[in-house]
Specification:
By secondary structure, this protein is α+β, with helices and mostly antiparallel strands. 23% of the residues lie in helices and 29% in strands. It has two helices and four strands, in the order αββββα. A hairpin with a 2-residue loop joins strand 3 (52-60) and strand 4.
Length: 102
């Protein structure tokens, strides 16, 4: 697929941002096809069952930035080549025993 990029910046109310995030979440939850748009441009994309998620929160003085990134590859064969880290092993810790000194 050729490279395509839709990028828009705008000032929105907190409610407008919430509505857009809710609509995206509902589209992701209801199926693999998601239509996204901004300013008259839109694109319909297929989203696989597993995606990579990145959340970044940056506070710099009085400015706060939250970035949410969701990405994946369209080719499932390439996706399977990206290996997830092994699950963390549970560490069992024991409490020190009370000594019964006589």
């Amino acid at each position: 697929m050729p490279k395509l990029e839709i990028k828009r910046k705008s000032e929105l109310s907190r409610q407008e941002v919430a509505d857009r995030l809710i609509a995206l979440g509902q589209a992701l939850a209801s199926g693999s096809e998601v239509e996204l748009g901004s300013g008259g441009d839109s694109i319909e994309i297929s989203v696989p069952e597993q995606v990579r998620w990145e959340l970044e929160i940056e506070v710099d003085g009085n400015e706060v930035e939250i970035e949410i990134e969701i990405n994946w590859r369209d080719d499932p064969q390439e996706e399977s080549e990206v290996k997830s880290p092994p699950p963390a092993k549970a560490v069992r810790r024991s409490r020190p025993r009370k000594s019964t000194a006589k």
